[in-house]
Amino acid sequence: MEIGSFIKLQRVKKGMTQEELAEGIVSMSYLSKIENLRAEASPEVVSMLCTRLGIELNGDKDITIKEKCEQWFNMLFDMHDKQQIIEKYNELNELLTLVRSDSLILFEIHKIRYFLILGQYDNALEQINSLNEVTGTFDNLHFYYWYKFKGNFAFVNNEYNQAMNLFKLAEDKIKQVHLQDSEIADLQYTIAVTHSKLINTLEVIEYSNKSIDIFQKEYNFIRCAQCHILLGISYRRIKMYEKAIKHYNLAKHLGELNKNNTVIQLTNQNLGYLYSAIGESKEAIKHYLGVIDDEAVGLYERLVASANLIKEYYRIQNFDKALEIIEKAEKLLELSKNNVFYEVNYYIIQSYKYAINEQYDLFTTLVIEDLIPYLKKHKDHGNIILFSNMLAKHFESVGKYKDSVKYYKLANLTYEEIVNL
Questions:
Q1: CB within 8 Å of 44: residues ≥ 6 apart
Q2: What is the pTM of this model?
Q3: Among candidates 149, 137, 139, 74, which has minimal Cα distance to 109?
C-alpha cells in the first residue's frame, strides 16, 4: 500500500483534517499531493506524519499482521463463532491503529462484512461512508471485496437490484485478481440468492449450478445443501414439483450427514411451503411441526414456521389448532422482542388471532395500518397478496364493496408485479 494512501486512510479514520495533520510539518497543499500520490514524501516527513497519527513504521510486524488478517478474513468467510471473530477483530484493530501495514485497506473493507455479521447495520453504513473518501487508492482486489460487501449491505436492506448491480461489479473483477475457488463459488451463490429474491428463476438455476460444481469438488457439502435448497425453490416456482422435492431431499440428506440442524430445518420449512402450494396440507403441517418443535433451531426459523403453520391451519379452517400454535408463537415472540424479525411476525400472528376470534375491527386496523405498509416496504409480495385477499373477502362479506375492490386490486397488481419481475 502506498504510503500516501496509508496516511490518508489513517487520517480519515482518526477524524483529522489535512490542516491538523500538516501543521508544522508540511503545507496543506503538499500533504494533499502526498495523500493523492502526486508527490513522494521524504522519510523524515513520513516519520513525522506517522508520529502525529500515532503510528509506528515496523516492517517486521507487518508480516505477522498480514497472517492475522488472513485468519480473520477466513473466520468471516466461514462464519466462525462470533465471540472468536470479535476477539480477533479487537486484536487486529489495536495493532493496525499503531503499526503501518499493507493489509490495512483490506482490513477496513472487511469491517463492513464484520458489522453485518454482528447485525450492526449502522456501523456498516458508517464504515462504507468513511471508505468512500479513499476508493481512489483501491486496487482490483480491494474493489472486489468493496463491491461484494456493499452488495451484502444492500441485500440486508432489501435493496436487491442495487445488491445485484454491486455483485455483478465484483464478478467483473474476478478475472483481474487471484481468488480461491471457494470465494468465487461464494459470490456465485450470493448472486443466485439475490436472483431468487428478484424472482429471476432461470438465473438462480444457472448460478446455483455454477457454485455447486465448485462446492462439490471441495467436498463442502453444507454449501452444496444450500445450493440444493435454492434449486428447490426455483423449481417449485416453475411448478416442477418433483424436481423441487428431489433437491430439497438432497439438501436434507446432506444436512443429516453433517448433523447440521439449520440446513435440515430450512429444508423442512421449504418442503412445508411446497406441499402447502400443491394443497397437501397434511404433509405441509408435518414439515412445519418439525421446525417449531426443535428447540435447537433459531427463534427466527421457529417463528417463520409458526406463522406458516398458522396460515395452513387457517386455510383448512382448523381454527382450534391455529389458536394452539398462536399461543406457542406468542411465547417465542416474547423471547425475540429485541430482534429485527420481531415486528413482521408479531403483525402476522396477531392478524390471524384477530381474524379467527372475529375481532374484525382490530384485524382490519392492524393489517391496513401496520402489516401491509411493512410488507410493501420490505417487498414481501407473497404476503401482500395473501393479506390483501383476506381483507377484500372480509369487506365483501360485510357489504363494503368499494373497500373490497380496493384490496382485490392491490392483490392483483402485486401478482402482476411478481410476474413482470
A1: none
A2: 0.80
A3: 149
